[in-house]
């Protein structure tokens, strides 16, 4: 298991994870990506109440 973290939003965590998974898959390592938490939700966009939890 690998956990990717950063101290700011828009730091490239998702992009880094995607590229790492692509590389691992190319090397024959089966990968599963999971993004359980998203930060930086824009309040100007109408989201469901679940999006703010």
UniProtKB/TrEMBL annotation:
Q: Name one GO molecular function term.
A: ATP binding
List, alphabetically, the InterPro entries matched: DTB_synth_BioD, P-loop_NTPase
Per UniProt, which keywords does this protein have? ATP-binding, Biotin biosynthesis, Cytoplasm, Ligase, Magnesium, Metal-binding, Nucleotide-binding
Instruction: Provide the organism lineage as a comma list.
Output: Bacteria, Pseudomonadati, Campylobacterota, Epsilonproteobacteria, Campylobacterales
Question: Could you give one GO CC term from the UniProt record?
Answer: cytosol
Q: What biological processes does GO assign it?
A: biotin biosynthetic process
Q: What is this protein called?
A: Dethiobiotin synthase
Its UniProt entry gives the catalysed reaction(s) as: (7R,8S)-8-amino-7-(carboxyamino)nonanoate + ATP = (4R,5S)-dethiobiotin + ADP + phosphate + H(+)
Does the keyword section mention Nucleotide-binding?
yes
């Amino acid at each position: 298991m690998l956990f990717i973290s950063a101290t700011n939003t828009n730091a490239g965590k998702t992009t880094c994870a995607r590229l790492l998974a692509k590389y691992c898959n190319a090397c024959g390592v089966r990968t599963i990506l999971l993004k359980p938490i998203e930060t930086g939700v824009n309040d100007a966009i109408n989201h469901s109440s679940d999006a703010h939890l």
